[in-house]
UniProtKB/TrEMBL annotation:
This is Oxidoreductase molybdopterin-binding domain-containing protein. Pfam families: Oxidored_molyb. Residues 270-402 form the Oxidoreductase molybdopterin-binding domain. The chain crosses the membrane at residues 7-27, 67-88, 109-131, 137-158, 208-228. It comes from the Bacteria. Keywords: Membrane, Transmembrane, Transmembrane helix.
Protein backbone atom coordinates (compact mmCIF):
# COMPACT_ATOMS: atom_id res chain seq x y z
CA UNK A 1 0.00 0.00 0.00
CA UNK A 2 2.75 2.44 0.90
CA UNK A 3 3.50 5.08 -1.68
CA UNK A 4 3.13 8.75 -2.61
CA UNK A 5 -0.63 8.55 -3.22
CA UNK A 6 -1.59 7.20 0.22
CA UNK A 7 0.90 9.52 1.91
CA UNK A 8 -0.61 12.46 0.04
CA UNK A 9 -4.16 11.52 1.06
CA UNK A 10 -3.19 11.59 4.74
CA UNK A 11 -1.15 14.73 4.10
CA UNK A 12 -4.10 16.49 2.47
CA UNK A 13 -6.31 15.76 5.49
CA UNK A 14 -3.68 17.24 7.81
CA UNK A 15 -3.09 20.20 5.49
CA UNK A 16 -6.78 21.10 5.70
CA UNK A 17 -7.31 20.46 9.43
CA UNK A 18 -4.06 21.38 11.18
CA UNK A 19 -4.36 25.12 10.38
CA UNK A 20 -7.73 25.05 12.17
CA UNK A 21 -6.10 23.50 15.25
CA UNK A 22 -3.34 26.12 15.11
CA UNK A 23 -5.70 29.09 14.67
CA UNK A 24 -8.06 27.99 17.47
CA UNK A 25 -5.05 27.51 19.75
CA UNK A 26 -3.85 31.05 19.08
CA UNK A 27 -7.36 32.42 19.58
CA UNK A 28 -7.53 30.67 22.93
CA UNK A 29 -4.22 32.27 23.90
CA UNK A 30 -5.73 35.67 23.07
CA UNK A 31 -8.78 34.86 25.19
CA UNK A 32 -6.54 34.67 28.26
CA UNK A 33 -5.70 38.37 27.94
CA UNK A 34 -2.00 38.72 27.04
CA UNK A 35 -2.33 42.50 27.38
CA UNK A 36 -2.88 42.03 31.14
CA UNK A 37 -0.01 39.61 31.60
CA UNK A 38 -2.29 36.66 32.36
CA UNK A 39 -1.75 34.56 29.24
CA UNK A 40 0.98 32.00 29.63
CA UNK A 41 3.83 32.25 28.94
CA UNK A 42 4.14 35.87 30.01
CA UNK A 43 7.15 36.90 27.95
CA UNK A 44 7.15 35.54 24.40
CA UNK A 45 9.25 38.26 22.77
CA UNK A 46 8.46 38.86 19.12
CA UNK A 47 6.00 35.97 19.17
CA UNK A 48 3.59 38.14 21.14
CA UNK A 49 0.15 38.28 19.54
CA UNK A 50 -1.57 41.65 18.87
CA UNK A 51 -3.23 43.15 21.93
CA UNK A 52 -7.01 42.88 21.56
CA UNK A 53 -9.94 42.96 23.93
CA UNK A 54 -11.40 39.46 23.76
CA UNK A 55 -15.09 39.89 22.83
CA UNK A 56 -17.96 38.81 25.06
CA UNK A 57 -20.20 38.02 22.11
CA UNK A 58 -21.13 35.48 21.04
CA UNK A 59 -21.14 34.13 24.59
CA UNK A 60 -20.18 30.65 23.31
CA UNK A 61 -17.07 31.87 21.45
CA UNK A 62 -14.44 30.37 23.77
CA UNK A 63 -16.55 27.26 24.24
CA UNK A 64 -16.39 26.62 20.49
CA UNK A 65 -12.75 27.56 19.88
CA UNK A 66 -11.36 25.55 22.79
CA UNK A 67 -13.71 22.61 22.23
CA UNK A 68 -12.78 22.51 18.55
CA UNK A 69 -9.07 22.80 19.33
CA UNK A 70 -9.14 19.85 21.72
CA UNK A 71 -11.63 17.61 19.91
CA UNK A 72 -10.10 18.04 16.47
CA UNK A 73 -6.61 17.63 17.91
CA UNK A 74 -7.58 14.28 19.41
CA UNK A 75 -9.34 13.13 16.24
CA UNK A 76 -6.21 13.82 14.18
CA UNK A 77 -3.98 11.50 16.24
CA UNK A 78 -4.71 8.43 14.03
CA UNK A 79 -4.11 10.50 10.89
CA UNK A 80 -0.77 11.75 12.21
CA UNK A 81 0.34 8.21 13.11
CA UNK A 82 -0.80 6.87 9.73
CA UNK A 83 1.07 9.65 7.95
CA UNK A 84 4.23 8.81 9.91
CA UNK A 85 3.80 5.12 9.05
CA UNK A 86 3.47 5.99 5.37
CA UNK A 87 6.81 7.85 5.31
CA UNK A 88 8.85 5.49 7.49
CA UNK A 89 11.33 4.80 4.65
CA UNK A 90 11.93 8.54 4.36
CA UNK A 91 12.63 8.91 8.07
CA UNK A 92 15.52 6.42 7.80
CA UNK A 93 16.86 7.61 4.46
CA UNK A 94 20.64 7.11 4.21
CA UNK A 95 22.97 8.90 3.74
CA UNK A 96 21.11 11.72 5.47
CA UNK A 97 22.84 14.59 3.64
CA UNK A 98 23.33 14.22 -0.07
CA UNK A 99 22.60 17.85 -0.91
CA UNK A 100 21.71 21.18 0.68
CA UNK A 101 18.09 20.69 -0.39
CA UNK A 102 17.96 17.31 1.32
CA UNK A 103 19.47 18.72 4.54
CA UNK A 104 16.83 21.47 4.54
CA UNK A 105 14.08 18.95 3.90
CA UNK A 106 15.20 16.60 6.66
CA UNK A 107 15.57 19.46 9.12
CA UNK A 108 12.00 20.58 8.49
CA UNK A 109 10.90 16.94 8.76
CA UNK A 110 12.65 16.56 12.12
CA UNK A 111 11.00 19.73 13.49
CA UNK A 112 7.66 18.77 11.96
CA UNK A 113 7.54 15.25 13.37
CA UNK A 114 9.07 16.17 16.71
CA UNK A 115 6.85 19.23 17.00
CA UNK A 116 3.54 17.51 16.36
CA UNK A 117 4.36 14.54 18.61
CA UNK A 118 5.38 16.94 21.39
CA UNK A 119 2.17 18.98 21.02
CA UNK A 120 0.01 15.85 21.03
CA UNK A 121 1.74 14.33 24.06
CA UNK A 122 1.67 17.47 26.21
CA UNK A 123 -1.88 18.32 25.17
CA UNK A 124 -3.22 14.87 26.02
CA UNK A 125 -1.46 14.80 29.40
CA UNK A 126 -2.78 18.26 30.27
CA UNK A 127 -6.34 17.20 29.42
CA UNK A 128 -5.97 14.28 31.80
CA UNK A 129 -4.61 16.61 34.50
CA UNK A 130 -1.42 14.52 34.47
CA UNK A 131 1.27 17.17 34.95
CA UNK A 132 4.24 14.86 34.46
CA UNK A 133 6.30 17.27 32.40
CA UNK A 134 8.86 18.72 34.77
CA UNK A 135 8.28 22.02 32.95
CA UNK A 136 5.46 24.54 32.53
CA UNK A 137 2.85 23.15 30.13
CA UNK A 138 1.65 26.52 28.85
CA UNK A 139 5.14 27.77 27.99
CA UNK A 140 6.24 24.56 26.32
CA UNK A 141 2.99 24.08 24.40
CA UNK A 142 3.01 27.69 23.13
CA UNK A 143 6.60 27.70 21.89
CA UNK A 144 6.24 24.14 20.62
CA UNK A 145 3.26 25.24 18.56
CA UNK A 146 5.30 27.97 16.88
CA UNK A 147 8.16 25.57 16.11
CA UNK A 148 5.70 23.10 14.60
CA UNK A 149 3.89 25.82 12.63
CA UNK A 150 7.13 27.12 11.11
CA UNK A 151 8.18 23.58 10.17
CA UNK A 152 4.74 22.89 8.68
CA UNK A 153 4.89 25.99 6.49
CA UNK A 154 8.40 25.07 5.26
CA UNK A 155 7.42 21.44 4.67
CA UNK A 156 4.32 22.40 2.70
CA UNK A 157 6.35 24.80 0.57
CA UNK A 158 8.77 21.97 -0.26
CA UNK A 159 6.25 19.16 -0.74
CA UNK A 160 3.06 20.73 -2.09
CA UNK A 161 3.95 20.16 -5.77
CA UNK A 162 4.61 16.46 -5.12
CA UNK A 163 1.41 16.13 -3.11
CA UNK A 164 -0.61 17.52 -6.03
CA UNK A 165 1.16 15.27 -8.52
CA UNK A 166 0.63 12.17 -6.37
CA UNK A 167 -3.07 12.86 -5.85
CA UNK A 168 -3.56 13.32 -9.59
CA UNK A 169 -1.82 10.03 -10.34
CA UNK A 170 -4.74 7.98 -9.01
CA UNK A 171 -8.34 9.22 -9.07
CA UNK A 172 -9.68 9.07 -5.52
CA UNK A 173 -13.10 7.71 -6.47
CA UNK A 174 -11.56 4.86 -8.48
CA UNK A 175 -9.03 3.99 -5.77
CA UNK A 176 -11.80 3.78 -3.18
CA UNK A 177 -13.47 1.03 -5.23
CA UNK A 178 -10.40 -1.21 -5.27
CA UNK A 179 -10.36 -4.03 -2.72
CA UNK A 180 -7.37 -5.91 -1.33
CA UNK A 181 -7.24 -8.39 -4.22
CA UNK A 182 -6.90 -5.58 -6.74
CA UNK A 183 -4.36 -3.55 -4.77
CA UNK A 184 -1.08 -3.14 -6.64
CA UNK A 185 2.12 -1.28 -5.72
CA UNK A 186 2.60 2.23 -6.98
CA UNK A 187 5.43 2.84 -9.45
CA UNK A 188 8.86 3.55 -7.93
CA UNK A 189 9.06 7.13 -6.73
CA UNK A 190 11.97 9.54 -6.23
CA UNK A 191 11.30 9.75 -2.47
CA UNK A 192 11.69 6.00 -2.00
CA UNK A 193 8.32 5.51 -0.30
CA UNK A 194 7.46 2.49 -2.49
CA UNK A 195 9.23 -0.66 -1.34
CA UNK A 196 11.79 -2.12 -3.75
CA UNK A 197 10.20 -5.58 -3.42
CA UNK A 198 6.66 -5.08 -2.10
CA UNK A 199 4.96 -7.99 -0.36
CA UNK A 200 1.33 -8.93 -0.73
CA UNK A 201 -1.03 -6.29 0.70
CA UNK A 202 -2.65 -7.01 4.05
CA UNK A 203 -5.46 -4.57 3.19
CA UNK A 204 -6.41 -2.22 0.42
CA UNK A 205 -5.68 1.49 0.37
CA UNK A 206 -9.43 1.92 0.73
CA UNK A 207 -9.27 -0.17 3.88
CA UNK A 208 -6.33 1.82 5.24
CA UNK A 209 -8.20 5.09 4.76
CA UNK A 210 -11.38 3.62 6.29
CA UNK A 211 -9.44 2.28 9.28
CA UNK A 212 -7.82 5.63 10.05
CA UNK A 213 -11.06 7.53 9.42
CA UNK A 214 -13.00 5.14 11.64
CA UNK A 215 -10.51 5.54 14.47
CA UNK A 216 -10.75 9.33 14.16
CA UNK A 217 -14.53 9.21 14.29
CA UNK A 218 -14.39 6.91 17.32
CA UNK A 219 -12.04 9.26 19.18
CA UNK A 220 -14.30 12.17 18.30
CA UNK A 221 -17.34 10.31 19.62
CA UNK A 222 -15.53 9.62 22.90
CA UNK A 223 -14.45 13.27 23.20
CA UNK A 224 -17.16 15.58 21.88
CA UNK A 225 -19.48 14.84 24.80
CA UNK A 226 -17.33 17.03 27.04
CA UNK A 227 -18.56 20.06 25.07
CA UNK A 228 -22.22 19.04 25.19
CA UNK A 229 -24.70 18.86 28.03
CA UNK A 230 -27.19 16.15 28.87
CA UNK A 231 -26.71 12.47 28.08
CA UNK A 232 -23.91 13.21 25.61
CA UNK A 233 -21.59 14.26 28.45
CA UNK A 234 -21.48 10.70 29.76
CA UNK A 235 -19.85 9.61 26.48
CA UNK A 236 -16.69 11.69 27.15
CA UNK A 237 -14.84 8.57 28.26
CA UNK A 238 -11.41 9.90 27.25
CA UNK A 239 -11.75 13.03 29.38
CA UNK A 240 -12.91 12.16 32.89
CA UNK A 241 -12.97 15.77 34.06
CA UNK A 242 -15.38 16.62 31.26
CA UNK A 243 -17.95 14.04 32.34
CA UNK A 244 -21.01 14.77 34.45
CA UNK A 245 -19.92 14.16 38.06
CA UNK A 246 -23.40 14.15 39.60
CA UNK A 247 -27.09 14.87 39.04
CA UNK A 248 -29.03 17.90 40.17
CA UNK A 249 -28.69 21.64 39.54
CA UNK A 250 -25.03 21.76 40.66
CA UNK A 251 -23.95 18.42 39.22
CA UNK A 252 -21.90 19.87 36.35
CA UNK A 253 -18.08 19.64 36.09
CA UNK A 254 -15.55 21.82 37.89
CA UNK A 255 -11.88 22.46 37.16
CA UNK A 256 -10.80 22.54 40.80
CA UNK A 257 -12.75 21.65 43.91
CA UNK A 258 -12.70 23.84 47.01
CA UNK A 259 -10.62 21.20 48.76
CA UNK A 260 -8.05 21.06 45.95
CA UNK A 261 -7.83 24.86 45.95
CA UNK A 262 -7.20 24.93 49.70
CA UNK A 263 -10.27 27.01 50.52
CA UNK A 264 -10.77 27.31 54.28
CA UNK A 265 -14.50 26.94 55.11
CA UNK A 266 -14.05 29.59 57.79
CA UNK A 267 -13.20 32.13 55.08
CA UNK A 268 -16.48 31.49 53.24
CA UNK A 269 -18.72 31.51 56.32
CA UNK A 270 -20.83 34.32 57.82
CA UNK A 271 -17.77 36.54 58.26
CA UNK A 272 -17.10 36.62 54.50
CA UNK A 273 -17.23 40.04 52.88
CA UNK A 274 -16.78 41.14 49.28
CA UNK A 275 -14.49 44.17 49.13
CA UNK A 276 -15.06 46.64 46.28
CA UNK A 277 -12.47 49.31 45.51
CA UNK A 278 -12.14 52.14 43.01
CA UNK A 279 -9.47 54.71 43.74
CA UNK A 280 -9.97 55.90 47.32
CA UNK A 281 -13.50 54.50 47.58
CA UNK A 282 -14.01 51.15 49.32
CA UNK A 283 -17.11 49.22 50.19
CA UNK A 284 -17.59 45.84 51.86
CA UNK A 285 -20.71 43.76 51.29
CA UNK A 286 -21.80 40.52 52.87
CA UNK A 287 -23.82 37.96 50.96
CA UNK A 288 -27.13 39.24 52.31
CA UNK A 289 -26.32 42.75 51.05
CA UNK A 290 -25.44 41.34 47.64
CA UNK A 291 -28.72 39.43 47.49
CA UNK A 292 -30.56 42.65 48.33
CA UNK A 293 -29.16 44.35 45.21
CA UNK A 294 -30.96 44.02 41.83
CA UNK A 295 -30.45 40.45 40.60
CA UNK A 296 -29.90 39.44 36.99
CA UNK A 297 -30.14 35.98 35.45
CA UNK A 298 -28.23 34.82 32.35
CA UNK A 299 -27.68 31.47 30.68
CA UNK A 300 -23.94 31.31 30.01
CA UNK A 301 -21.32 28.66 29.35
CA UNK A 302 -18.28 27.80 31.39
CA UNK A 303 -15.46 26.52 29.19
CA UNK A 304 -12.15 25.11 30.40
CA UNK A 305 -8.74 24.91 28.76
CA UNK A 306 -8.92 21.10 28.90
CA UNK A 307 -11.74 21.36 26.36
CA UNK A 308 -14.82 20.64 28.49
CA UNK A 309 -17.65 23.14 28.72
CA UNK A 310 -21.16 23.38 30.10
CA UNK A 311 -24.11 25.75 29.75
CA UNK A 312 -25.85 26.78 32.98
CA UNK A 313 -28.22 29.46 34.28
CA UNK A 314 -26.55 31.93 36.65
CA UNK A 315 -28.08 34.56 38.92
CA UNK A 316 -26.31 37.41 40.66
CA UNK A 317 -25.34 41.08 40.56
CA UNK A 318 -24.10 42.68 37.37
CA UNK A 319 -20.44 43.62 37.56
CA UNK A 320 -21.22 47.06 36.18
CA UNK A 321 -23.68 47.61 39.06
CA UNK A 322 -20.95 46.72 41.54
CA UNK A 323 -18.63 49.17 39.80
CA UNK A 324 -21.24 51.88 40.15
CA UNK A 325 -21.38 51.33 43.91
CA UNK A 326 -17.83 52.67 44.18
CA UNK A 327 -18.20 55.37 41.54
CA UNK A 328 -16.56 53.50 38.66
CA UNK A 329 -19.30 53.73 36.05
CA UNK A 330 -16.65 54.52 33.42
CA UNK A 331 -14.55 51.48 34.20
CA UNK A 332 -11.34 50.67 32.33
CA UNK A 333 -10.58 47.28 33.89
CA UNK A 334 -11.26 45.21 37.00
CA UNK A 335 -8.92 43.04 39.04
CA UNK A 336 -10.65 40.13 40.74
CA UNK A 337 -8.99 38.28 43.60
CA UNK A 338 -9.96 34.91 45.02
CA UNK A 339 -9.79 33.50 48.53
CA UNK A 340 -7.53 30.88 46.96
CA UNK A 341 -4.09 31.82 48.22
CA UNK A 342 -1.92 30.08 45.62
CA UNK A 343 -2.09 28.96 42.04
CA UNK A 344 -1.88 30.54 38.59
CA UNK A 345 -5.52 31.54 38.52
CA UNK A 346 -6.27 32.95 41.97
CA UNK A 347 -6.76 36.35 40.35
CA UNK A 348 -7.90 37.68 37.00
CA UNK A 349 -8.04 41.01 35.18
CA UNK A 350 -11.18 41.80 33.21
CA UNK A 351 -11.24 44.31 30.34
CA UNK A 352 -13.80 47.12 30.22
CA UNK A 353 -16.03 45.32 27.72
CA UNK A 354 -16.09 42.27 29.99
CA UNK A 355 -17.06 44.28 33.07
CA UNK A 356 -19.74 46.29 31.27
CA UNK A 357 -21.43 43.44 29.40
CA UNK A 358 -25.03 43.23 30.67
CA UNK A 359 -24.64 39.49 31.37
CA UNK A 360 -21.34 39.75 33.26
CA UNK A 361 -22.15 38.73 36.83
CA UNK A 362 -20.92 38.19 40.29
CA UNK A 363 -22.95 34.99 40.48
CA UNK A 364 -24.54 33.97 43.78
CA UNK A 365 -26.80 31.20 42.53
CA UNK A 366 -26.85 28.68 39.69
CA UNK A 367 -29.88 26.91 38.24
CA UNK A 368 -32.07 28.33 40.99
CA UNK A 369 -30.00 27.19 43.98
CA UNK A 370 -27.10 28.62 45.97
CA UNK A 371 -23.60 27.98 44.71
CA UNK A 372 -21.84 25.03 46.28
CA UNK A 373 -18.28 25.33 47.65
CA UNK A 374 -16.88 23.57 44.56
CA UNK A 375 -18.71 26.01 42.29
CA UNK A 376 -17.38 29.07 44.08
CA UNK A 377 -19.54 29.73 47.16
CA UNK A 378 -20.19 32.38 48.33
CA UNK A 379 -19.70 34.26 45.03
CA UNK A 380 -17.97 33.79 41.70
CA UNK A 381 -17.50 35.71 38.47
CA UNK A 382 -19.29 34.70 35.27
CA UNK A 383 -18.48 36.57 32.05
CA UNK A 384 -19.67 35.65 28.53
CA UNK A 385 -17.00 33.99 26.34
CA UNK A 386 -14.35 34.18 29.08
CA UNK A 387 -12.10 31.16 29.77
CA UNK A 388 -13.36 29.30 32.82
CA UNK A 389 -10.17 29.81 34.84
CA UNK A 390 -10.74 33.58 34.68
CA UNK A 391 -14.32 33.26 35.91
CA UNK A 392 -12.85 33.49 39.38
CA UNK A 393 -14.39 31.43 42.18
CA UNK A 394 -14.50 32.23 45.90
CA UNK A 395 -14.20 35.96 45.16
CA UNK A 396 -12.65 38.05 47.92
CA UNK A 397 -12.31 41.46 46.26
CA UNK A 398 -12.82 43.39 43.03
CA UNK A 399 -10.78 46.50 42.30
CA UNK A 400 -12.06 48.72 39.50
CA UNK A 401 -9.88 51.07 37.47
CA UNK A 402 -11.70 54.15 36.26
CA UNK A 403 -11.29 55.11 32.63
CA UNK A 404 -9.20 58.23 32.06
CA UNK A 405 -10.17 60.89 29.57
Amino acid sequence: MRGPWLTSVYGLVLLVTLPLVIVTGLLDHLAYGPAYGQAFPYDVGWLRLPAVDWPTRPSWLFRVTQGLHVTLGIMLVPVVLAKLWSVIPKLFDWPPARSVAQVLERLTLLLLVGGILFEIATGLLNMQYAYLFGFDFYTAHYFGAWVFTAALVAHVALKLPRLVTALRSRPVVRELTVGRAGTRPEPPDPDGLVAAAPGDPTMSRRGAIALVGGLSVLLGALTVGQSLDGAWRRTALLLPRGRQPDDGPTGFPVNRSALAAGIDPADTGPAWRLTLRAGDRTRALDRAALLALPQHTARLPIACVEGWSTLQTWTGVRLRDLAALVGAEDVDAARVRSLERAGLFNRATLAANQVLDPDSLLALRVNGVDLTPDHGWPARVIVPALPGVHCTKWVASIEFDRATA
